[in-house]
């Protein structure tokens, strides 16, 4: 039988240094020459099973100590090198494994340094928010992933694209869909471009929602999708053909820095175009006014989902035909931000959207229910906030449902014009006190506080304890 050989030189050296003995002394105890031990520590000779057993018996070492924590250290290093500042520096993971093996202490130091860097970056972001609220330019240049560039560009500008909206409205008129928009788009795709739409079962397309096969000229949709989501998929495919010039012109106007960012933005604009086709601007604007912006009624009128109708409300900014300036925020149950948009750009500096007391977080405890409230910021600005959970594609019996939550809000001055805010506007005592984020909020005694404010020192009084987890002076 072949003898198992292990190269673990750096770990042997670490154990020897921990014992405080020289190579000569350890070699004598193991019954080998100092030069051979030196080769072992430099990974030029293997550590055999016999030597491992002798190490364990002579120096009372747990054999597991020779295994170390290479796996976890290498995993953390891999995470570090996915950062935009370092991505591409190391093409594969083998070199990181070698670093964690040969220099574990240096690797741990690198991990600590990166954690400190991320913490300081978070603090700088929070300070930039404070300066922005005070009216100072606090832009910080940093390496960004293409998706971050796209998100930043769309979130900072109005969620309205005039060229696409006008073209989508004209396309809708050409289709003359009557009561069956999905059928009209399917017919147009087949007659004008030879594209046939088919719905496939889960086992045939387990991981995709939509796939276009250029060879057979067929557009496949997953049966997991609800009817309104299937409609958006075929509308998006049609808009990428019919509104190609308008989408390209809008992309040129936005001016992204890379091809990857431009590709991601093209998808977002096609998604916007699909909603514009499903809910033509003029008809949707008129219906929103008549329904007092009741999203449920708009869903029934246009046969769309809550998420689709709510997102469309944030785009009502056509000159001469504007609606209330709504903004929206979508998160998952862990609080990760998925999408932000606004009729005038997302109000990051004024509203933030990271307060734990927002009803968007409470929505997960009441799936499918609409929660409405008026919230007040520290500067006395008030917002009407409406939140509801959203369901992802239909899941199988053993699958976990993908559920997110959507918040749509506007200035509380318009609460009386909106179905959800009419009764709230008459109850000033029900106003919820919130902040932009815990690190930027100085409200005392907040039971929901998750972090201390940057602007105040911690209250370290042994004689007094406040209601908040993080007391401050």
Automatic annotation (TrEMBL):
Q: Which UniProt keywords apply?
A: DNA-binding, Transcription, Transcription regulation
Q: Which domain of life is it from?
A: Bacteria
Regions that span the bilayer: none
* Keyword DNA-binding annotated: yes
Q: Which SMART domains match?
A: HTH_XRE
Q: Does the keyword Zinc apply?
A: no
- Quote the InterPro entries the UniProt record gives: Cro/C1-type_HTH, HTH_RamB, IrrE_HExxH, Lambda_DNA-bd_dom_sf, ScfR_C, TransReg_Diox_bact_type
Q: Where is the HTH cro/C1-type domain?
A: 12-66
Query: What family does the database annotate?
Result: Belongs to the short-chain fatty acyl-CoA assimilation regulator (ScfR) family.
Output this protein's name: Short-chain fatty acyl-CoA regulator family protein
């Amino acid at each position: 039988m072949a003898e198992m050989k292990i190269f673990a030189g750096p770990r042997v050296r670490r154990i020897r240094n921990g014992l405080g003995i020289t190579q000569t002394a350890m070699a004598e105890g193991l019954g080998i020459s100092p030069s051979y031990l030196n080769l072992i520590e430099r990974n030029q000779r293997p550590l055999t099973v016999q030597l491992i057993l002798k190490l364990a018996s002579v120096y009372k070492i747990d054999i597991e100590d020779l295994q170390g924590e290479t796996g976890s250290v290498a995993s953390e290093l891999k995470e570090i090198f996915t950062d935009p500042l370092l991505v591409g520096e190391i093409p594969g993971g083998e070199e990181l494994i070698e670093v964690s093996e040969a220099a574990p202490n240096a690797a741990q130091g690198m991990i600590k340094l990166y954690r400190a860097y991320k913490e300081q970056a978070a603090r700088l972001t929070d300070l930039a928010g404070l300066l922005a609220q005070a009216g100072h330019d606090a832009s910080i240049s940093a390496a960004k992933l293409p998706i971050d560039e796209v998100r930043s560009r769309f979130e900072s500008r109005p969620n309205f694209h005039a060229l696409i909206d006008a073209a989508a409205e004209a396309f809708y008129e050409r289709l003359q869909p009557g009561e069956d928009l999905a059928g009209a788009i399917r017919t147009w795709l087949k007659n004008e471009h030879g594209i046939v739409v088919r719905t496939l079962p889960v086992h045939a397309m387990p991981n995709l929602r939509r796939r276009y096969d250029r060879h057979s000229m067929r557009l496949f949709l997953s049966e997991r999708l609800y009817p309104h989501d299937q409609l958006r998929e075929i509308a998006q495919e049609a808009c990428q053909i019919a509104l190609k010039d308008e989408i390209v012109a809008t992309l040129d106007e936005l001016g992204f820095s890379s091809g990857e960012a431009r590709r991601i933005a093209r998808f977002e604009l096609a998604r916007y175009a699909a909603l514009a086709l499903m809910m033509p601007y003029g008809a949707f604007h008129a219906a929103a006014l008549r329904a007092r912006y009741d999203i449920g009624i708009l869903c029934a009128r246009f046969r769309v989902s809550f998420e689709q109708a709510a997102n469309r409300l944030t785009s009502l900014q056509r000159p001469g035909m504007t609606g209330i300036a709504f903004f929206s925020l979508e998160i998952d149950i862990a609080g990760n931000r998925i999408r932000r948009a606004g009729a005038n750009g997302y109000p990051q500096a004024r509203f933030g959207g990271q307060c734990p007391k927002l009803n968007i977080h409470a929505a997960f405890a009441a799936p499918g229910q609409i929660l409405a409230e008026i919230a007040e910021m520290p500067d006395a600005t008030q917002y009407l906030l409406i939140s509801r959970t959203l369901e992802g594609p239909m899941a199988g019996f053993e699958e976990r449902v993908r559920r997110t939550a959507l918040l749509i809000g506007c200035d509380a001055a318009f609460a009386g014009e909106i179905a959800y805010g009419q009764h709230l506007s008459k109850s000033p005592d029900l106003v919820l006190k919130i902040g932009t984020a815990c690190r930027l909020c100085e409200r005392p005694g907040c039971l929901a506080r998750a972090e201390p404010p940057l602007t105040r020192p911690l209250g370290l009084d042994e004689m007094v304890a406040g209601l908040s987890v993080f007391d401050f002076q």
